[in-house]
Automatic annotation (TrEMBL):
Residues modified to N6-(pyridoxal phosphate)lysine: 255
Name of the protein: Acetylornithine aminotransferase
GO terms under cellular component: cytoplasm
Compartments where located: Cytoplasm
Cofactor binding: number and manner: Binds 1 pyridoxal phosphate per subunit.
Gene name, Swiss-Prot/TrEMBL: argD
Main localisation: cytoplasm
GO biological process: L-arginine biosynthetic process
Length: 396
């Protein structure tokens, strides 16, 4: 039997050196090489165990290598991996039907990532309205491709690649009047994260999304929800929009949808979706049989294991433990919904990522002063307790 080239006995140093030599150096990687994962735990090439409170940046909602997802991928890989969307497959419409049921939307477009789903939404919004402009929020993050980047706020992402696609206005998040005042005759859509993720786990004030919905309806402007990070149970409900009961015209989903397999989705109402005709948009790999099987298995796992409820309950437990155990000179406050938690620090928290990793807990710092904790929903209380213990012992 031929030896698999993806396996070997390379040391951590050799692997990192190969990366440095051959891979674009566009990531600020942590100096560990992960080789295995199960549940909320991962192990590096040296056998060291970590509690993963990053979860692939809010991707591994059902945990690493969930048995149901692994089995579905293995079974589908033996049947059919890819055909392109020139043909029907038996599994893609099953997934589309299930997603329509969960989201309350009518039609589903399959892509491969969050930023691809955003790109599809921008095109659909322009086609449906005939307008060109977009309104998004300060501190938002929608992706790094040219369209998604054009509606992403942070200057450090935008500046090196300007001029970007024109027509984007940014307003303060949580300020409905600012959206009302920014609207003009060429606005196609308002695009909002129900909870800002990269911006620091920012939760909007009560009534904000409802008021934005009213403003868009009155102005004849589309409302787009970026649920790339907030979807699939991350906030303790299936989608971030479910906390407000607001139905957008378009919504984008990715990250946790397929248990770690790359997939993005744009969902839309029938009234908006009908504006896309054959040839208006496409994706070679979107909704491929392997990804569709992984997504259906992920949804089944979430439903049967009641992981949305677990996200809600364990997220509340983790927030409470952080509040009780962390020093007041260290933490300003803790916020979040479900398993989407932001620990607001009083100083730059970037150095804490290294310190926590050395103690066996993987965390992420965003917006310089926020520890973003987005662990798998299957994390145990014992693993939460250990993570909080490590965080409480960190020093700025």
């Amino acid at each position: 039997m031929a030896k698999c080239i993806c396996q070997g006995n390379l040391s951590e140093e050799e692997i990192i050196a190969k990366d440095a030599k051959h891979v674009f150096q566009t990531y600020g990687r942590q100096p560990i090489v992960l080789t295995r994962g199960k549940g909320a735990l991962v192990w590096d090439v040296n056998g060291k165990e970590y509690i993963d409170c990053v979860a692939g940046i809010a991707v591994n909602n059902v945990g690493h290598c969930h048995p149901r997802v692994v089995a579905a991928i293995q079974e589908q890989a033996a049947r059919l991996i890819h055909t392109s969307n020139l043909y029907y497959t038996d599994i893609q419409p099953q997934l589309a039907e299930k997603l329509a049921e969960l989201t309350g939307m009518d039609r589903i477009f399959f892509a491969n990532s969050g930023t691809e789903s955003i790109e599809a939404a921008l095109k659909l919004a322009r086609k449906a309205t005939g307008n060109k402009g977009f309104i998004s929020a300060e501190h938002c993050f929608h992706g790094r491709t040219m369209g998604a980047l054009s509606i992403t706020h942070k200057a450090k992402y935008r500046a090196p690649f300007e001029p970007l696609i024109p027509g984007a206005d940014f307003v303060p998040y949580g300020d409905a009047d600012a959206i009302r005042n920014a609207l003009d005759s060429d606005t196609a859509a308002v695009i909002i994260e129900p909870v800002q993720g990269e911006g620091g786990v920012i939760i909007p004030p009560a009534g904000y999304l409802e008021e934005v919905r009213k403003i868009c309806d009155k102005a004849g402007v589309l409302l787009v929800f970026d649920e790339v990070q907030t979807g699939m149970g991350r906030t303790g409900k299936w989608f971030g929009k479910d906390h407000s009961g607001v139905r957008p015209d378009i919504m984008c989903i990715a990250k946790g949808i397929a248990g770690g397999f790359p997939m993005g989705v744009m969902a839309a109402t029938e009234e908006v979706a009908k504006n896309f005709s054959k040839g208006d948009h496409a994706s070679t790999f979107g909704g491929n049989p392997l990804g569709a099987a992984a997504a259906l298995a992920t949804i089944n796992a979430i439903e049967e294991e009641r992981l949305v409820e677990r996200s809600r309950d364990m997220g509340a437990y983790m927030r409470d433990e952080i509040k009780k155990r962390c020093r007041q000179d260290f933490i300003d406050h803790v916020r979040g919904l479900g398993m989407m938690i932001g620990v607001q620090l009083k100083k730059d928290g970037t150095p804490l990522v290294d310190k926590a990793r050395e103690k066996g807990v993987l965390v992420n710092c965003t917006s310089e002063t926020v520890l973003r904790l987005v662990p798998p929903f299957v994390i145990t209380k014992g693993e939460i307790d250990r993570s909080v213990e490590v965080i409480s012992e960190l020093e700025l």
